[in-house]
Specification:
Order of helices and strands: HEEEEEEEEEEHHHHHHHHHH
Strand content: 15-25%
Number of domains: 3
Radius of gyration: 32 Å
Oligomer: single chain
Number of helices: 11
Largest sheet: 6 strands, antiparallel
Low-confidence stretches: 1-15
Shape: elongated
Distance between the termini: 102 Å
Structural class: alpha+beta
Mean pLDDT: 90
Strand order of the largest sheet: 1-2-3-6-7-8
């Protein structure tokens, strides 16, 4: 039996009704891309149309240059919705900079005004309307002007994070033979991470010395927040029931003290690490090497000699003595220990390094 035209139209409308679990309108599959910048999460949610048989007709055609009025909506000239169906949504979990301009944490409707030479990317406070039909300039949170560029062919409209650094990532919209991108940066990322670490250490991570040590290492690697790092280092070493005085914790504390300009305290901390009964020849050698890195050759030699007294004539001891005497200007004694260490070297990598050291000390 043939359906009346009215019933047929109603059935088609039902297939696109929001809230029902049905295939996407027009076959424009939904997609989401998420990029982390440290703990900062950047998300793009969109529906992805295909080029189909419209190659060469997308830009300036299907996607008009400039604004365009639509028969439906508020009757105003409208930007492109950057995809299909519902709003494309750009979300950030923290305040960020978009090409150097501030954008607060939140969810934004993403729109674009295309052009032959430049595009305007719009972040709208209205992220919940369907499509671009209810776009209003008054809802703009931010606009940035960007340059389009040629790109390898993309059948499906895609968002991708194409460049990633410690404090920033570049996101691109890619479709047909064009890409349009902008940079999301988090200049206060270290402050955000510090705040997160403080909260983390009030939970499970704060019940082990390793958690405090990891927080200290973050500060040392990024060269930030040394006062807070010292608080955490002290906790890693001596927090009742949790802290542990070992080579890792004491070494980390000494590096924080150096960063704070407290070299004498750092030296005393490292000597304490070397003198610990549990420190073996490798551990003591590492302390001596750290002292050499701190430009403390005399203290380093004392530690290397402590290693000899405790552990005898073994490979790590002779390596340390060679470097310690050399740093203090006694090349003859250094050469004796370098030759011993070369004979004792456990692998080819160390043999090559010690062969070179022997050559240098011999003047060859």
């Amino acid at each position: 039996m043939k359906l009346p035209a009215l019933m047929f139209t109603a059935a088609c409308a039902l297939a696109q009704f929001p809230g029902l679990t049905l295939p996407p309108s027009g076959g424009n599959q939904k997609a989401t891309v998420i990029q982390g910048i440290g703990p900062v999460k950047v998300t793009v949610e969109y529906s992805s149309p295909a080029v189909k048989d419209r190659r060469g007709k997308i830009w300036g055609g299907l996607v008009p240059y400039g604004l365009k009025k639509d028969d439906f909506g508020n009757g105003q000239p409208l930007p492109w919705r950057v995809g299909a169906n519902e709003n494309t949504v750009f979300a950030v979990s923290h305040d960020v900079l978009i090409d150097g301009k501030p954008l607060a944490a939140g969810r934004y409707g993403l729109f674009m005004i295309a052009g032959p030479e430049e595009w305007t990317v719009i972040f709208s406070k209205n992220s919940e309307s369907w499509g671009h039909y209810f776009y209003e300039v008054k809802d703009d949170a931010l606009r940035v002007v960007v340059k389009p560029k040629k790109h390898e062919y993309r059948e499906w409209l895609t968002f991708d994070f194409v460049a990633r650094k410690y404090q920033e990532a570049t996101v691109e919209m890619q479709w047909e033979d064009l890409a349009v991108g902008w940079t999301v940066s988090v200049p206060n990322l270290n402050d955000i991470i510090l705040s997160s670490l403080k909260k983390d250490l009030q939970r499970e991570a704060g019940f082990s010395w390793q958690g405090y040590l990891a927080a200290v290492e973050f500060c040392l690697q990024q060269k930030v927040h040394f006062d807070q790092a010292l608080v955490w280092a002290d906790a890693a070493v001596g927090l009742p029931g949790i802290g542990q005085k070992n080579l890792e914790t004491l070494s980390a504390k000494s590096r924080v003290l150096v960063a704070l300009g407290r070299s004498d305290d750092a030296l005393a901390t490292l000597k304490a690490a070397a003198e610990m009964p549990a420190s073996g020849p490798i551990e003591i050698h590492q302390v001596g090497r750290q002292l050499l890195g701190m430009k403390q050759p005399k203290a380093a030699l004392e530690v290397f000699q402590l290693n000899q007294k405790r552990n005898g004539d073994v490979w790590p001891v002779n390596v340390g003595l060679a470097r310690g005497f050399a740093a203090n200007g006694d090349k003859a004694t250094a050469l004796i220990h370098a030759r011993k260490a070369l004979e004792q070297a456990p692998d080819e990598i160390n043999k090559r390094a010690l062969t070179q050291l022997v050559k240098e000390l011999s003047g060859n």
